[in-house]
C-alpha cells in the first residue's frame, strides 16, 4: 500500500482508513457504525511498539486525515443522539444511557475529577470552562451532576447548531439549566473572560493537528488566570490514530502536574497542568519528563486502586437511569 510500515496493526488501521474515507457520509448508519467500531476496537489495546510520532510521512498524513474523519463522525453521532434525547417529554438528562458511549464518559469524567481533586488543594472550582463542548456536552453534564454540584459551567463551541441542541438538552433540568451556559464563539476570540475560570477543559478535537492544538494552548496560556488549571485530553499508543497527542513540552507557560494513560475502554489520556504564576519558568524538559514519569506511575497506582470505585460509581448511575 506504500505506507512504508509493515506492522500488522498499522496495516489494519490503514485499511480501515481507506474504507472510511470512501464513505459518502459520516452520519450514523450501519456501515459507518461498523467501520468506526472496528477502528476503535483495533486502536484500544495498549501496544508499547506503536509510537506514531516516529512513523514515516505517509503514515503521519494518513493519521492526520483519519483524526479529522473521526472528529466529523463524532460530531454527527453526538448531534444524532442529542436530537433523540430532546424528544423525551420528561427531563432528557434522565435518559443519557441511550448514548452508546455514555459509560465511557462516566468513567473518564470520574478519572478527571479525581485528578482535579488531587491538584485543587481542597478547594472547589467556582467556574469551569469547557472548550469544544459540542452538541452533547457529556463531560460538563456528568461533572456538574455528580462531582461539581455547586460549580458554574460555561461551554464554548464554534458551531451554533451544536450549542442550540446542547442548550435545549439541559433547558428542562431545573438545576443544570441554572448552572450551565453556552457560548457560540471561536476560542481564539475569547480573551478577558478566560481569566474568570478556575478550571479550563480543552476537548480532544479542538485543534485536530499539532500546530492548531499548540496555537490554542498558547492562546489559553496568554489569557487564563495564573494558578488556574488546564485539563486536556490526549492519546497514547495506537489510540493516537483517533485523537491528537499533547505532550508536556507543548504546554509552555504551564506546570504539568500529571499525565494519565488509561488502559481500559476509556480512550483518551488526561493531562492536567497549572498556569504558571508571575515569572516562574518551566522546568527543563528532561527534568520535567523525569518528574512526570514518577508522578504518572503514582497516578496509575492511585487510579488502579480506585478502579473498583469508578466501576461501582458508573454502575450505580446506570441503575438510576434504567
TrEMBL record:
PROSITE patterns: NAS. The keyword ATP-binding does not apply. InterPro entries: Nicotian_synth (IPR004298), SAM-dependent_MTases_sf (IPR029063). Pfam families: NAS (PF03059). Signal peptide: none annotated. GO terms for molecular function: nicotianamine synthase activity. It is an enzyme of class 2 (transferase). It catalyses: 3 S-adenosyl-L-methionine = nicotianamine + 3 S-methyl-5'-thioadenosine + 3 H(+). GO terms for biological process: nicotianamine biosynthetic process; phloem transport; pollen development; pollen tube growth. SUPFAM superfamilies: S-adenosyl-L-methionine-dependent methyltransferases. Its EC number is 2.5.1.43. The keyword Ion transport does not apply. Keywords: S-adenosyl-L-methionine, Transferase. Synthesizes nicotianamine, a polyamine which serves as a sensor for the physiological iron status within the plant, and/or might be involved in the transport of iron. Belongs to the nicotianamine synthase (NAS)-like family. This is Nicotianamine synthase. It comes from Brassica napus. The lineage of its organism: Eukaryota, Viridiplantae, Streptophyta, Embryophyta, Tracheophyta. The gene is BnaA09g15990D.
